[in-house]
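Quiz preparation item.
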């Protein structure tokens, strides 16, 4: 596998991000309207772009296989959103590398910590987050899914 990690800069990159975000959403089997997901897709190039955010993309050669969004929660805190690797590419440490790159990006954007929320059934993702220094915190935003796990990492 020839894995390439890239930060979105061009409109085409953000269109790829939209497709991956939609694939992520479809994989969840829940309605993300409580997060205003449609607006998020329409404004992906604003929410996940400099100076306060980034969209990281992962390619296997020329095929987009994953993504992670970074956006501002407050001046010191970034939020990791829509981290997703296509199922057939999981188990190859691609997600770990993507997370490590997100930490570098967060630091370059002058954030001191990063937060995320994850669904209770995403045990593999939670284990990855914990292995890289995340710990559980109280909920920082509304999520109607019972058992949602909120996590944070100091950068």
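Solution:
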């Amino acid at each position: 596998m020839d894995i390439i990690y890239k930060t979105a800069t061009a409109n085409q990159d953000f269109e790829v991000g939209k497709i991956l975000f939609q694939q992520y959403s479809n994989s969840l089997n829940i309605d993300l309207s409580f997060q205003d997901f449609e607006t998020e897709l329409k404004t992906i190039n604003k929410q996940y772009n400099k100076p306060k955010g980034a969209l990281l993309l992962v390619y296997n050669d020329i095929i987009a296989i994953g993504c992670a969004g970074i956006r501002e929660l407050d001046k010191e805190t970034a939020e990791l959103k829509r981290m997703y690797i296509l199922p057939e590419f999981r188990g190859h440490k691609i997600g770990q590398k993507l997370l490590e790159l997100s930490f570098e990006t967060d630091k370059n954007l002058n954030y001191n910590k990063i937060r995320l929320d994850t669904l209770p059934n995403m045990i593999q993702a939670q284990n990855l987050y914990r292995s890289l220094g995340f710990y559980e915190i109280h909920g920082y935003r509304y999520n109607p899914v019972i058992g949602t796990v909120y996590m944070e990492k100091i950068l």
